[in-house]
């Protein structure tokens, strides 16, 4: 592509990017704030333990389940239109959630929030594809968009703490209302409309099949992460896999499919998507085990553990923003591979953590890993969206977001299971039942601290090996431009 003749984005587009970043910031802020609000709202609504889990999980279930449908729907009916509809729905559902009078009402409101949230992220990413035609500007815009998402995760505990100190738990949900009001006012003025030409009708059978494929798998993976490998969770994953096979077969037969499988033929698209998926798996698993180490081995309170995690978020945001700039001077494949190598180094550092007093080692490893993985993430969003045809940008964005949801669920389930297996395997034969049950119930027993530290080393070692393999794959596949 000759970027010299590609039109450059102006002031209106960059201001529009700020409008698109609002829902992104809100979605991540909303998730992280809820973790702090959960004890307060559970007390206020009398929520049982299973209801608390559904309050937390139903949002991610609905979000993951409807991303593919909403990404394609935006391509067909108009991306700005769907974004504004989703923003209005999110605002209304936020008010319902804030003033819920029962746990069941809040669960229903959270489900609606998840469906509305599924309209926001693919639409906003696809609109960036339309607004920023120049590849360099598009990469920079994507990195800013993703940095806002990470910024919301970092700000969530601070904002949540302030809100819950001065207001009731419902304020955590009302936080999104002014954001969405601003989106509804500024969106029609600053954001362009785009509708893919010649789009057919939405295939409802494909929508049902996609939900049947995604929802059981996400449920099964979450249940495995929480309760271990049980017949119900494994059956859910298998059922989802069967639906996925049927879904793929149907997409191949349709003239206008819900999910265009031709996107995966593009080498840059499929390789970058795979790198980001597996990178998400590793980071989700290592973050989980690292957080458990800080609290259960190092003895930090949840608040202090959260404060120790702030540096990694800051470094990640900075690296995401810097990635496109670096990628204009150095071939992106080498920037991505270098970032993966740095991430591997960070996890190798974690393998040296002692069973006592290892906070600095664990946090330093997380900072290196987060800063390193931010480089392929910062470039990967732009590569994936940019490699898709403009009329399929919404579909590409939905695939990217869905893979992110799967990455987190897979990472927590698989690497969490690995940590549990190693923990139990290295415990002394005569360890008490409470110690064998897990580090959280071990009461600081020295054998448990040593065993969990060994499990941290195992997870970090596996993660480092995956990152090294991904670095080699990135250079091998992406260093040469793909033939037209």
Our measurement of the CA-to-CA distance between the termini, rounded to an integer number of angstroms, reads 10 Å
Strand content: under 5%
Largest beta-sheet details: none
What sort of overall outline do the alpha carbons produce when their principal axes are compared? globular
Which structural class do you get from the secondary structure elements?
mainly alpha
Q: Portion of residues in helices?
A: over 70%
- Count every helix, treating DSSP H or I runs of 4 or more residues as helices: 17
Which key phrases capture this entry?
17 helices; 3 domains; mainly alpha; single chain; 484 residues; globular; Growth Hormone, Chain: A
Describe the protein in words:
Helix content is 80%, strand content 0%. It is mostly helical. Helix 12 (310-327) packs parallel to helix 14, helix 13 (332-350) packs antiparallel against helix 17 and helix 15 packs antiparallel against helix 17 (446-478). The radius of gyration is 22 Å and the shape is globular. The N and C termini lie close together (10 Å).
């Amino acid at each position: 592509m000759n970027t010299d003749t590609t039109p450059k984005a102006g002031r209106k587009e960059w201001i529009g990017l700020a409008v698109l970043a609002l829902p992104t910031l809100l979605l991540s802020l909303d998730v992280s704030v809820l973790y702090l609000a959960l004890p307060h709202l559970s007390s206020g609504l009398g929520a049982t333990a299973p209801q608390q889990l559904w309050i937390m999980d139903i949002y991610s279930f609905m979000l993951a389940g409807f991303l593919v449908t909403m990404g394609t729907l935006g391509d067909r009916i108009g991306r700005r239109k769907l974004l504004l509809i989703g923003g209005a729905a999110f605002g209304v559902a936020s008010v319902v959630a804030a003033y819920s009078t029962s746990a069941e009402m809040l669960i229903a409101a959270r489900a609606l929030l998840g469906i509305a949230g599924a309209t926001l992220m693919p639409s906003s990413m696809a609109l960036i594809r339309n607004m920023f035609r120049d590849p360099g500007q598009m990469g920079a815009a994507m990195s800013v968009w993703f940095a806002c998402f990470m910024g919301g995760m970092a700000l969530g505990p601070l904002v949540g703490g302030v809100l819950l100190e001065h207001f009731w738990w419902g304020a955590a949900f009302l936080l999104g209302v002014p954001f969405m009001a601003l989106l509804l006012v500024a969106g029609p003025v600053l954001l362009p409309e785009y509708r893919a030409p010649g789009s057919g009708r939405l295939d409802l059978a494909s929508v049902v099949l996609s939900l049947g494929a995604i929802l059981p798998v996400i449920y099964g993976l979450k249940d495995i992460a929480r309760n271990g490998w049980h017949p119900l969770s494994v059956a859910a994953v298998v059922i989802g896999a069967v639906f996925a096979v049927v879904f793929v077969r149907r997409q191949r037969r349709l003239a206008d499919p819900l999910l265009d499988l031709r996107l995966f033929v593009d080498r840059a698209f499929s390789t970058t998507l795979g790198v980001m998926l597996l990178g998400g798996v590793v980071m989700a698993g290592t973050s989980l085990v690292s957080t458990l180490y800080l609290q259960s081995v190092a003895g930090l309170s949840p608040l202090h553990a959260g404060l120790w995690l702030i540096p990694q978020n800051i470094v990640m945001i900075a690296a995401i923003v810097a990635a496109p700039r670096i990628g204009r001077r150095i071939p992106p494949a080498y920037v991505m591979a270098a970032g993966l190598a740095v991430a591997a180094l960070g996890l190798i550092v974690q393998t040296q953590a002692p069973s006592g007093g290892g906070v600095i080692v664990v946090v330093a490893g997380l900072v290196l890993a987060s800063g390193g993985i931010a480089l392929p993430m910062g470039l990967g969003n732009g590569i994936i969206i940019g490699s898709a045809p403009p009329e399929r940008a919404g579909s590409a964005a939905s695939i990217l977001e869905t893979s992110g949801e799967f990455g987190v669920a897979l990472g927590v389930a698989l690497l969490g299971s690995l940590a549990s297996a190693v923990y139990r395997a290295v415990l002394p034969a005569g360890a008490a039942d409470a110690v064998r049950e897990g580090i959280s119930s071990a009461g600081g027993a020295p054998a448990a601290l040593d065993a969990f530290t060994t499990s941290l080393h195992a997870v970090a070692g596996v993660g480092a090996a995956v990152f090294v393999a991904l670095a080699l794959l990135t250079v091998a596949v992406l260093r040469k431009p793909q033939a037209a």
